[in-house]
Amino acid sequence: MSRNSASPYGVIPTARPPLVSHARSFYAARRPWRVFFAISGLSLPFSYAEAMARIRHNLNYFRVNYALVALIILFCSLVYHPISMIVFLVTFVAWIFLYFYRDDPLVVFGRIVDDRVVLVGLSLVTVVALVLTHVGLNVLVALIVAVVVIGVHAAFRGTEDLFLDENEAAEGGLLSVVR
Length: 179
Prior knowledge:
This is PRA1 family protein. This protein has a domain at 45-163. Helix content is 56%, strand content 6%. The chain has helices at 18-23, 33-36, 48-61, 63-76, 82-100, 115-131, 136-156, 166-171, and strands at 6-7, 10-11, 106-108, 111-113. Strand 3 (106-108) and strand 4 (111-113) form a beta hairpin. The model is unreliable at 15-27 and 173-179 (pLDDT under 50).
């Protein structure tokens, strides 16, 4: 029988397994760029501890936006290397289908793959593919620039107006298990 096939009793609706519907809340969500670039959200952190807390929170909250920023910086570093740019565009297609525009969590061999694992895997594949095209120094410099840009934004972007749902807060380690 197919998923929604007719039986002697009519059409049997099929529901998503609870694990998939629960995991749906864990896959990446791009935040609006107007929130990301909001000038009113920028402020100096009072201490090193506050800066680190902001970085942890913002890296979790804006992770898809930060991935796009890093990819744009990496793409701009390849302007004078056409073969590397073609390789990058091929890997960018993988980014689009596996990370940015999927509606359901990624399932491999019947297991749901965490969004962070997809992010790290695609990052490694992209860097290795570009290093194999002999633009290792360009990739290294672009990644250093991306880390600095993302780190500065994450440290100076206030978190008072950024709200995580319960699943995102637990995933980012923001909830305490001590009562």
